[in-house]
Amino acid sequence: MTRQEAVIKIAKITRIIGELKYQLDADDEVEFEALDPEWKHIAEWTQEVCRYMELDASPQVARLIANIGFTDMVEKYVQSRRKEIGAKEAKILDDYVKHMRTLSSLCDTRSEEQREKYGDLIEPLANERVAALLQRAVDAGILDRHYQPVPQTSPLQLKVIAYAVSSLCKLHSPYVLFEKQWHRENGKRFNTCRIPKHNTACYEETRALYPEVDFAGFEPVHEAATFYVPQSEEEIRAMYEDLVKYGYIAPETTFEAFGSIFDKARFESPVEWTKNQRQLSYFIHQAFSRFNRKNLWIKGECCFRIGGKKPHKASLVTGFVWIKRAGWMDRYDTRLKAICDRFNQ
């Protein structure tokens, strides 16, 4: 039996036992004629799955087996209604319970063996495939022999490893299990770190450990996030002309390009901001925060460039916070404030 065949049989057993439980919950009785006709094979299927697990104790298959459940309920039903149900039906259920007990015991034994063999890994990761993939990071000096980060390992390196192993092992979430595996100081999470713009050496070296992984989805790509404003096109044009006139945006910026930052469907490309990043933070907040409090800085990151480069959201926030703490909200850039006030009047 292949793993796929075992999974199919387990799915059938789970469905049939679910039907049986539903009947018992509803009427405390089982109408065997109402069950899927294949129910008569559950004992032999369970025995076949048991033989498969003796040869290939797959942790994934073991988890599916554990989810079948309700063996005690089936056993109790047969014992209490043995005189009322047919001998043939009773034997099928008796054999099913017997084989299910054997199968559960086998899974428990295999699970304990897995835990002992891969004792340095949490239970969902305690298998040969994950251990072999993590060994690459051990050999590279990023993890120690217990699969824990060495002191100099960066959060970004851990994020790369977790993403790679999760992708290859088809884990449900790329980071949740590894956040538990790598219990870091002060509860710091590694999955929120971003790829740096310049010093990317450690990222590239760690990624090279897993050449078979497609890292295209490693960094989330946000769709165009544009500003909502209730102002008319004339008011938007007036702001655009002031920003060009006083050198806040590049003179070659067209009104169509500027106007597109207010309409996702028309969005062309980010607008080039010619002043410093702190002034951009001030402008974004003064001009658009009233109607764009949610994702204000993500929108700013999407809609503007400085020197051709995307301003980092965290840097935009830091720039604005500096101005606010200094108490300069009304006098940081009076000309820019006047443009924003006219726009929002």
Please outline what is shown here:
The protein is an all-alpha fold.
How does this model look, in words?
This protein is an all-alpha fold. It has 15 helices and 2 strands. It has a two-stranded parallel sheet with strand order 1-2. The chain is elongated, with a radius of gyration of 31 Å. The mean pLDDT is 89.
Can you give keywords for this protein?
345 residues; mainly alpha; two-stranded parallel sheet; 15 helices; 2 strands; 56% helix; 2% strand
Structural class: mainly alpha
- Residue share in β-strands: under 5%
Cα distance spanning the termini: 74 Å
SSE ordering: HHHHHHHHHHHEHHEHH
Average pLDDT taken over every residue: 89
Q: What shape does the CA trace take?
A: elongated
Strand order of the largest sheet: 1-2
